[in-house]
Amino acid sequence: MADKYRSSSVYIKTIVSLTLTTVLVFGVLSFLYYQRTSASFLSDKSKDVYSDARYMAVRLQKVLPDLGREHFALNQDEADMLIGLSLGCTIWIVDESGQILYASDIPKESMEQLEHSGGEFYVPEKYLNSFLGPKGGVQNTVKTGMFSDSRNDWITASYPINKEGQYIFLHSSVNVEQQTMSMLANVLALPIGISFAIALILFTLMTRAIVKPIRLLSDAARKVTHGDLSARIEYSEIDKDSPFQYLIVDELGMMITAVNDMIERLERQETDRRVFISSIAHDLRTPLTSVNGFISAIMDGTIPPDKIEKYMQIVKGEVERIQLLTDTMTEATSLANISKENMDLFDINALISETLTNLENQLTAKNLGVQLELFENDKGVLLAYGNRQSILRVLYNILTNAIKFSPRDGNIAITTYFEMSENLITVSVEDSGPGIPNDQKNRIFDSFYKIDQSRTDTGSGLGLFICKEILRAHGQGIRAEDSRDLGGSNFIFTLSGPGERKD
Fold first, then answer.
1. Does domain 268-332 have CATH number 3.30.70.120?
2. How far apart are CA 429 and CA 421, in angstroms?
3. What is the pTM of this model?
4. CA distance 295 to 288
5. Of 218, 378, 387, 487, which is most buried, counting CB atoms within 10 Å of its CB?
6. Which CATH number applies to 337-496: 3.30.565.10, 3.90.370.10, 3.30.70.1050, 3.65.10.10?
7. Contact 443, 401 (CB under 8 A)
8. Angstrom distances, CA of residue 57 to CA of 60, 65, 167, 168
9. What is the pLDDT of residues 247-273, one digit of tens each?
């Protein structure tokens, strides 16, 4: 129930976030479009008013030839004709001094800005100069200037009527905000509504496509925490009802693959751990049973005194076997103690020879031949950088495996090579054994894993894991391949050379 609630919460939060983002984007775009549209509308309106002023000036020259007389006056018919040409604008006829010779109306918004003298109104010089000239002028007051109107914008255009310096002024009041909003509502309301609806639907589907695999990841993680290592995330559960499969191909797809691989690895490791515990229990039970039996026989006198020493040697051997097993387990849990302070230069070729000497009895017992191809510098050595004792353990484990799986009269080949440009030493150990199945080459370095899972195999399944962890502590790696020359396995690991090292 809690998981479903969290999934729904993520789903809803994502939808709300995307919706708010969409609203914000549409809002910003609408605002920018409003700004451009209002500016364009004001510009077009200004051109229209100026064009009307020029048209009226030409008409006035034709119908009122005496317009330039000294004592200017219009009769009612002339005034009506002039108003008829005004196209709804306020008309002033103004001379070069700024005196208003005729006004169809003087709006109250401009009354405070005009100058008064002898019962006449005058346009102030600071405004007048913008409208005089051979082509007149046009100006948008934008709630300031000649008209003080907090609600509307005023457009004033002028054009000369005659050579006597008389101009016609047209004033048009426009509500740019209202006109622009009306235009936007008529033009953009439907497209924006449809676009927003489509975007919301797409966001919903996309969010579902993203949230569903996240929910499946959460469900799988919850099952794993409760011990169910059979949990997997199936792609079919995601793809079958999602039109946005491509969304999970990259990051989410890789995450799903990684989680499935991790769970599978944990499941294998858990299986190997159980087998390991069973094997360890057997390996401990067998010698302990022998030790208990021999000691009990000695104590109750079943074993004659002259044979006690013989059986005590057997008991000692069994105890040493138990000690070796516990030492191996302890070593596997303390590999992180390898630090750079414990590392130094040593001759890897000499270390290989030392390891072979320690294993001479085992080599002789199976009559195994050893082929050496060791790289040497001009001083007859090959210096490697690392913890000598730890690398000795790596060589011992690998060579022990090679001896163990090689048939009698078989061969083992050891090769070292130094890549100077990379400052890298490569060590290869090949054997003539049965080799490693391809599907197990990556698993043999896991802890507790053994190719032979039978109880007769006395190995702990930690040898190669120890090798991998030791080399990882050195910043190096190990891998298993097929031996081309001997037909068995080929274990290859690397070490840093004597040159400059990259930390």
1. no
2. 23
3. 0.46
4. 10
5. 387
6. 3.30.565.10
7. no
8. 5, 12, 8, 6
9. 555 666 777 788 888 888 888 777 767
